[in-house]
Specification:
- By secondary structure, this protein is α/β, with parallel strands linked by helices.
- Helix 8 runs parallel beside helix 9.
- The protein starts with a strand and ends with a helix.
């Protein structure tokens, strides 16, 4: 008989991304502070890792090459060997594979995106949504990263409300400040606005470049992140006449020195789950502007699931912009630059970020795992 419960944490990969960073932080915290459990990690894909797992944690990397079928078969073999009490998974492919592999163990899945708006309107997106609708309701429990994500699963994917807990991401602000103090080889000579994310359609950097070019700001713009749309975005900068003022910095493993020296942060995403970059910018005392997309920004900035406004909103902790509305984005940015708004929202950002407490959040994760592993749902 095992002295401790075995918890397997499962994710597609540890490539650069918000969900991967949260996963790494959660495993690190759990391995240090959770009592009465043993932690193992299973990674579905064999690829370069941007985030690390503590050496004290057993890690198993499968070579699924992004294939859902291989993910299922290789994961089933691995779980048969490990015999965990609970499998706790992150991201859609890992979540679906974990549910299909359910046997003697309990399955907790963590949904990090607004499912309805995350997948594109094509065959692949249609299949992913069908898998979510068929499988997610079979999990023992679902942790949604925001209220909007949880509401979407209940309303559109047949997940029972009693199965869902909402746990926001958390942030160790002292650690982030230590990382921000580290030296960086990146030198930006001028004052700058910063944004971050994969250079993909959902992050809508096209809107960001358009509103930046039309605004009255004299600041440069720095964008952290890589992705397939970089060439298109560079051309757009040329067409808009702002190429010399826009800096594409690529993926940066420690983005905090760049964040800490910026003047403000802008997110123009079409869809989010709970945007880490937004709160981390706020932890660096940056005033923030974000689109009112599904899900997360409105919950962070005005404590509502969505604002559903046709004009920008000057919220309690930052500015909300209607999604895909360049003109209102321009109005919001110009307003932020007026009078004392930058300094006022700098202070508000820091206070709001401090409400996403690491210790309390990690305890909530533990409570859900303990509840499910002892027979709760």
């Amino acid at each position: 008989m095992k002295d401790k419960k075995l918890i397997v944490f499962l994710i597609n990969s540890l490539e650069g991304g918000g969900a991967e960073r949260v996963f790494s932080n959660l495993v690190t915290y759990a391995s240090q502070y959770w009592e009465g459990v043993t932690i193992n990690v299973v990674i579905l894909d064999e690829c370069e890792e941007a985030y690390s797992i503590p050496k004290s944690v057993e890690k198993y990397t499968l070579n699924t090459s992004g294939s859902f079928v291989k993910s299922y078969f290789l994961l089933k073999q691995q779980l048969k060997l490990l015999q965990p009490d609970v499998v706790f998974s992150f991201l859609t492919r890992a979540n679906c594979a974990a549910i299909l592999c359910s046997g003697t163990h309990k399955t907790i899945i963590s949904e990090r995106v607004n499912t309805s708006s995350h997948f594109e309107d094509n065959i692949s997106g249609f299949i992913n949504k069908l898998l979510v609708k068929f499988l997610y309701k079979k999990a023992n429990h679902v942790i949604a990263v925001s209220k909007g994500v949880g509401q979407d699963l209940v309303n559109n994917f047949e997940v029972d409300k009693s199965q869902v807990s909402v746990i926001y991401n958390s942030y160790d602000i002292n650690k982030l400040n230590q990382l921000a103090a580290e030296s960086s080889s990146l030198k930006l000579d001028n004052n700058y606005i910063v944004s971050a994310g994969r250079l993909v359609n959902n992050k809508n950097f096209e809107m960001l470049l358009n509103l930046y070019a039309k605004s009255k700001t004299t600041f440069d713009l720095a964008i952290m992140g890589d992705g397939p749309l970089k060439g298109n975005l560079l051309k757009q900068c040329e067409d808009l006449g702002v190429r010399e003022r826009v800096h594409f910095l690529g993926f940066i493993s420690n983005p905090y020195p760049v964040l800490s020296k910026a003047k403000l942060f802008i997110s123009t995403s079409n869809a989010e789950g709970f945007p880490n970059a937004l709160v981390e910018a706020m932890a660096m005392k940056l005033p923030v502007l974000a689109t009112d997309c599904l899900s997360g920004p409105a919950e962070i900035l005005i404590n509502e699931i969505n604002a559903n406004s046709d004009v920008f909103i000057k919220g309690d902790w930052g500015y909300l912009i209607p999604t895909n509305n360049v003109d209102e984005g321009v109005n919001a940015l110009n307003d932020m630059l007026e009078d004392n708004n930058l300094s006022a929202f700098s202070d508000k950002s820091k206070k709001r970020a401090e409400q996403f407490n690491v210790k309390e959040t990690m305890q909530r994760y533990f409570n859900v795992i303990n509840f499910v592993s002892t027979g709760g749902k």
